[in-house]
Design a protein that fits this description.
There is one protein chain. This protein is α/β, with parallel strands linked by helices and about 475 residues long. Helices cover about 25% and strands about 20% of the residues. The strands form 4 sheets. It has a 6-stranded mixed beta sheet with strand order 10-11-9-12-13-14, sandwiched between helices. The chain has a 5-stranded mixed beta sheet with strand order 3-1-8-5-6. Strands 4-2-7-15 form a 4-stranded mixed beta sheet, with no helix packed on it. A hairpin with a 2-residue loop joins strand 10 and strand 11. The structure holds guanosine-5'-triphosphate and magnesium ion (MG).
Length: about 475
C-alpha cells in the first residue's frame, strides 16, 4: 500500500508564447516582396484532469515542479510557429485545488473534469499580421508572452466506497490489511493511523475501496483528537462500518456505548445520516471478546444493524463481511445518479481587459495599470524603434495619452506601465497631442473633455474633416 499523501504543493509553469517573426519576402527579380514573418505559437497550458485510475497525489509529492512546453517562434514565408504542448496532469477523483492563501479554486469531481491551472502565453504576431495600409512593411514583430506561473495546493479527500469508523485501536487498520492488500501501520497505541489508508477489496465481481482513517474519540466533531481530519475524509464514502472493539481493556467502555459515542459524533458533524451502516464486532479471537460479542449482538440487531463478528488477527468472518460490503456498495452505486459533471473544463476567471487606469504616485511618477497596456508592453521588443513606435500608437488609440494628459502629465514626466515590481518606465513624449492639435476644435481643449466612445470620436473627426473640405472648396481668394 502506498502511503496516503493527501496534500501537496505544486508549482506549475505554462509554456511561453513563441516570438513573432519579422521577415521580408524574397524572390528573384522581385526585390520588394511584402512582409512574410509568421506568428509565434501559443505556449502550452498546464491542465489538471481527473483520472479515475489515479488514486494518490504521490507523484506530485515526489516532483512538484511541472512545466508545459513553449510555443515555437514564427518563421519567414508566413510560417506560424508550432504551438506548445499542453501538459496534462492526472489527478485523483475528488482533488481540491487551492491557491497559496487557501482559497478553493476548483473541486474536481468526475472522470475527465479538468482545470486549467496555468495558461500558456500568447504567441507574438509576425510582421505579416502587423502590416496595414499605413504600415506596409513593418520591420518588427511582437514578442511572445511568458506563460503563467502558479503555486497551487492539491488536497484530496478520500473518495472511498467504505469508511471504517471507530475508537482508536479498535482494529480498523488491521481489518483493512486483511481485507485488502494494503499494508497500513498497525500498533496497539491510539492514533496509529495519522492519515487515511486506502485499500482495494475484491468480493466476487465487485471491486471497491475501503478507507481506514484515524480513530475517533468523544469530542471528535469539535476537533478533539484527529477527529475533524478523519470526518472530512468520511464525507465522500457511501457506506459506513462501525468497528467495535470487543476486547478493550478500558473498564468504562463496551461495544454499545462506543457505538453511541461514535454515532453522536457523526450526528454532530452532520451530513452522514443517509449512509447505510453496519457493525463489525472485532477481536472475537479473544475468548472474552467472543463472549461479549454474543451478549451485545441482539441489542445491536434490535437497533437495526447487521452485525458481523470478526477477527482481523485470526481471519475469522472476513469473507462474509467483504461480500456484505460488496452488496451495499453495489446498491449505493446503482442508486447514485450518474455523474453528469464529467468533462468540465474550468478555466480561471477571465479578467476584464477593457479598462486601464492612470494614477499619479507620490514621487511624481504616473502609473498605468490595465490588462491590455501591460500585455502590449510584454509583447514589445524595446531594442526595435519601430516596435516601440507601434506600442506608442496602440497606447494612444486606447486613450492612454489622453488620460495621462488629464492626470496632469507633461512631456518628460516619468510613466510606468505595469505593477511596481515589474513595470516598464520611460520618459513620456506625447506623440500626437502636440501644438495646435491639442486645442482640437476651436475654443476647446482635449484636456478638459470627458472621454467619448470611439464611434463618437470618429464621427466627430469625420465631421470636422468634412467641414474642412467644405471650407476649402468654398474658399475663393478672389472674392
Ligand atoms: N486479538 C486481536 N487483536 C487485534 C485484532 N485486530 C486488531 N488487533 C490489535 O489491536 C491493536 C490496534 O489495531 P489497529 O489496527 O492499529 O487499530 P486502529 O483502529 O487502526 O487504531 P488507530 O489507528 O489508532 O485508530 C493492534 O495491536 C492490533 O494488533 C483482532 O482481531 N484480534
Ligand atoms: Mg489505524
Amino acid at each position: 500500500m502506498t502511503t496516503f499523501v493527501d496534500r501537496v504543493e505544486l508549482h506549475v509553469a505554462a509554456g511561453n508564447g513563441g516570438h513573432g517573426c519579422a521577415s521580408v519576402h524574397r524572390e528573384k527579380f522581385k526585390p520588394l516582396g511584402g512582409p512574410d514573418g509568421g506568428n509565434g505559437g501559443r505556449g502550452g497550458d498546464v491542465i489538471l484532469t481527473v483520472d479515475q485510475s489515479v488514486t494518490t497525489l504521490l507523484d506530485y509529492h515526489h516532483s512538484p515542479h511541472r512545466k508545459a512546453t513553449n510555443g515555437k517562434p514564427g518563421e519567414g514565408g508566413n510560417r506560424a510557429g508550432k504551438e506548445g504542448q499542453d501538459l496534462v496532469l492526472p489527478v485523483p477523483d475528488g482533488t481540491v485545488v487551492l491557491d497559496g492563501a487557501g482559497q478553493v479554486l476548483a473541486d474536481l469531481v468526475g472522470h475527465g473534469t479538468s482545470y486549467v491551472a496555468a495558461q500558456g502565453g500568447r504567441g507574438g504576431l509576425g510582421n505579416a499580421a502587423l502590416a496595414s495600409a499605413r504600415r506596409k512593411a513593418p520591420g518588427f514583430a511582437l514578442l511572445g508572452e511568458p506563460g503563467d506561473l502558479q503555486d497551487i495546493v492539491l488536497e484530496l479527500k478520500t473518495v472511498a466506497d467504505v469508511a471504517l469508523v471507530g475508537y482508536p485501536s479498535a482494529g480498523k487498520s488491521s481489518l483493512i490489511s486483511v481485507l485488502s492488500a494494503a499494508k497500513p501501520k498497525i500498533a496497539d497505541y491510539p492514533f496509529t493511523t495519522l492519515v487515511p489508508n486506502l485499500g482495494v477489496v475484491t468480493a466476487g465481481a465487485t471491486v471497491y475501496t475501503v478507507a481506514d482513517v484515524p480513530g475517533l474519540i468523544p469530542g471528535a466533531s469539535q476537533g478533539k483528537g484527529l477527529g475533524l481530519e478523519f470526518l472530512r475524509h468520511v464525507e465522500r464514502c457511501s457506506v459506513l462500518v462501525h468497528v467495535l472493539d470487543t476486547a478493550t481493556l478500558e473498564s468504562d467502555r463496551d461495544p454499545l456505548s462506543d457505538l453511541d459515542v461514535i454515532e453522536e459524533e457523526l450526528k454532530q458533524y452532520g451530513g452522514l445520516g443517509d449512509r447505510p451502516r453496519i457493525v463489525v464486532l472485532n477481536k472475537v479471537d479473544v475468548p472474552d471478546g467472543k463472549d461479549l460479542a454474543e451478549m451485545v449482538r441482539s441489542d445491536l440487531e434490535a437497533r437495526g444493524f447487521r452485525v458481523f463478528e470478526v477477527s482481523a488477527v485470526a481471519h475469522i468472518g472476513l469473507k462474509e463481511l467483504s461480500y456484505a460490503l460488496g452488496e451495499l456498495v453495489g446498491a449505493a452505486r446503482a442508486a447514485k445518479p450518474k455523474e453528469e459533471a464529467t468533462r468540465i473544463v474550468i478555466r480561471p476567471k477571465a479578467v476584464d481587459d477593457a479598462g486601464f487606469s492612470v494614477t499619479r504616485e507620490d514621487d511624481g511618477l504616473f502609473r498605468v495599470r490595465g490588462e491590455k497596456p501591460e500585455r502590449w508592453v510584454r509583447q514589445t521588443d524595446f531594442n526595435n524603434d519601430e516596435a516601440v513606435g507601434y506600442l506608442a500608437d496602440r497606447l494612444n488609440r486606447l486613450g492612454v495619452e489622453e488620460e495621462l494628459m488629464k492626470a496632469g502629465a507633461r512631456a518628460g514626466d516619468g510613466v510606468a506601465i505595469g505593477p511596481e515590481d515589474n513595470a516598464v518606465v520611460f520618459d513620456w513624449e506625447p506623440s500626437v497631442m502636440a501644438g495646435a492639435e491639442m486645442l482640437g476644435r476651436r475654443g476647446e481643449d482635449h484636456r478638459l473633455e470627458e472621454q467619448r466612445p470611439a464611434v463618437q470620436r470618429r464621427r466627430e473627426r469625420e465631421a470636422e474633416r468634412d467641414e474642412a473640405v467644405r471650407e476649402f472648396e468654398a474658399f475663393d481668394p478672389f472674392e
